[in-house]
Design a protein that fits this description.
By secondary structure, the chain is of the alpha+beta class. About 40% of the residues lie in helices and about 20% in strands. It is built from 16 helices and 27 strands. The strands form nine sheets. A seven-stranded antiparallel beta sheet has the order 1-19-20-21-27-23-24, covered by helices on one side. Strands 17-18-22-26-25 form a five-stranded mixed beta sheet. Helix 3 crosses helix 15, helix 4 runs antiparallel to helix 5 and helix 4 packs across helix 16.
Length: about 525
């Protein structure tokens, strides 16, 4: 998953290399060279088998804009992401690559992060199949873990798996999958994410037995055994206590006891599970998990926030010291607070964003791929555009990492175009985030719910939406700032108001039947 050179992982990687290709290791020099270019877990050694020829998928999604560098980046990202999509002829069914290129596998963290971009590209069958595959392999025998990484043969990827008692596993993964399954429901309206028996079993086990079995709740997590559920006397174990890493961080400066992303992922999953239960009609249980989310948020604010330094700690080590923003020379994990939507204080968000702006160039591509939407949504379109162009540039030597291209599609759609979806009200919202008054952007054939839509932004003052296909849908046409009135197809309308990311916005609601188009502006033409 992440790209580090870490002494504690040398033995793990070396064993994998010997198993897969003994002829590769002929001297200490080659060991060092190979280790320097290995990524860990999802980003471990690439599969050295002959690469299977993939069917290049197509997508109707279109994007055009006055910023031609951004258009170029979009086209590259779209084509690259679709080249990773498989057509359902493999034993595992429909899937896309979500690990190192050519590993022929998909891993829990990467899939969770790529999934909205994949949905926008029309890969809905792939998403549902992959989420169900993760869900089907959770078991008591594996301590309520599932397969961290699954290959096209419908098997756990051998590079991360020896047997049900010896495998690699980052503990935030169950919560990441739960959180993003609900996000998928919200984008698609597909009730399989709420009702599929395998998924419901996965959510139920993850939010109950898994939390308790691994001592992940706020009342237990600081006293937990870092090597729990491992055979400490087994000197031949490939993975040791890497079977249960309480963070996505795999580097840093020693044995990690806990990461802030562990807490953030649990909060987000409790919130998502509460919503799933509420939609399913179980309000009593829903309220119980909402309370659990608040308890974990209290822990986040009391343990992870350093009131003296006025910043978040991010990683706790075995010697009870902490890393704050930077973790090692090329890592940072505070974006997970934003990604999992667990910070309520805008000033804290602003502080995190400043740190990422100052340190963007230092970070590995997997971490960079989380960032542009943070800048779009918090008023820095110029930096977000710069990040996307950088991520897609040939100068980025690791731009082919699948996570990169998939997430660029989401960043442009949800970030620049401000397009979001609410399945419960059958509504989509838009908010222009083009850089200045001379710019425009247009996205066409965006699949949301059971519809396809088209959205055009003219600067920050005019938006046009069309329901290209599907039943009647509601459009929330939003504009930054406080405006008493907005103009719908030239007619003056009293506007409604809200606040998002600490910034006020004004909006009107419009029903669009199939084929309908509407224009909303902040001034009369």
């Amino acid at each position: 998953m992440y790209f580090y050179i870490v002494k504690s992982q040398e033995a793990h990687n070396f064993k994998n290399l010997k198993r897969q290709n003994k002829t590769m290791v002929k001297s200490n020099f080659w060991i060092i060279l190979i280790l320097g270019f290995l990524a860990q877990s999802c980003g471990n050694q690439p599969n050295k088998t002959k690469e299977k020829k993939l069917k290049i998928n197509s997508s109707e999604l279109e994007f055009n804009a006055s910023n031609k560098e951004l258009v170029k980046a979009f086209k590259w990202a779209k084509n690259k992401a679709l080249s990773f999509a498989h057509d359902g002829t493999d034993p595992v069914g429909f899937w896309y690559e979500a690990a190192l290129p050519n590993r022929e596998a998909f891993c829990m963290r990467d899939v969770s992060h790529q999934t909205i971009g994949a949905e926008i590209l029309g890969l809905g069958k792939h998403n549902l199949n992959m989420f169900v595959k993760f869900a089907q392999n959770i078991s008591e025998e594996t301590d309520y873990c599932t397969y961290w990484e699954i290959n096209r043969h419908d098997k756990p990827a051998p590079v991360d798996y020896e047997n049900e008692k010896d495998f690699w596993y980052n503990l935030p993964a169950n919560f990441d999958v739960t959180y993003n399954a609900f996000r998928l429901y919200n984008w698609t309206g597909n009730k399989a994410y709420l009702e599929h028996p395998d998924l419901r079993n996965f959510y139920d086990l993850s939010m109950n037995e898994y939390v308790d079995h691994w001592d992940l709740g706020a009342n237990e997590v600081l006293a937990r055994d870092r090597s729990m559920h491992t055979n400490k006397e087994d000197t031949n174990s490939r993975f040791g206590n890497k079977r249960g890493i309480p963070t996505y961080n795999e580097g840093g400066r020693g044995e990690t006891l806990l990461g802030i992303d562990m807490t953030a992922s649990l909060i987000s999953a409790y919130k998502a599970y509460a919503k799933i239960l509420k939609i399913s009609g179980d309000s009593k249980k829903s309220n119980a998990y909402s309370i659990k989310a608040q308890e974990e948020r209290k822990f986040l604010n009391e343990f992870w926030w350093d009131s003296e330094k006025q910043e978040y700690r991010s990683i706790q080590y075995a010697d009870n010291t902490f890393d704050y923003f930077m973790v090692g020379s090329n890592g940072a994990y505070l974006h997970y607070l934003y990604y999992f939507d667990v910070i309520e204080d805008q000033s804290k968000i602003d502080g995190i964003i400043k740190n990422y702006k100052d340190n963007f160039g230092k970070l590995i591509v997997e971490l960079k791929s989380y960032l542009p939407i943070m800048f779009y949504e918090n008023g820095d379109t110029a930096m977000a555009n710069e990040m996307i162009i950088d991520l897609c540039s040939p100068k980025n030597k690791r731009r082919d990492y699948p996570e990169n291209s998939f997430t660029v599609i989401e960043h442009i759609t949800r970030g620049l175009m401000g397009l979001n979806v609410n399945a419960a009200t059958y509504t989509f919202s838009t908010l222009s985030r083009v850089e200045n008054s001379n710019e425009w952007a247009k996205m066409k054939n965006v699949p949301i719910l059971s519809n396809k839509i088209e959205v055009t932004h003219r600067a920050l003052s005019k938006s046009i939406a069309k329901n290209l296909e599907g039943k009647t849908i509601q459009w929330s046409a939003q504009f930054s700032g406080t405006h008493e009135f907005l103009y719908l197809n030239g007619d003056k309308k009293k506007s409604l108001h809200g606040i998002s990311h600490g910034r006020p916005y004004s909006y009107v609601l419009i029903e669009l039947n199939e084929g309908d188009e509407a224009m909303v502006s902040i001034e009369a033409d």
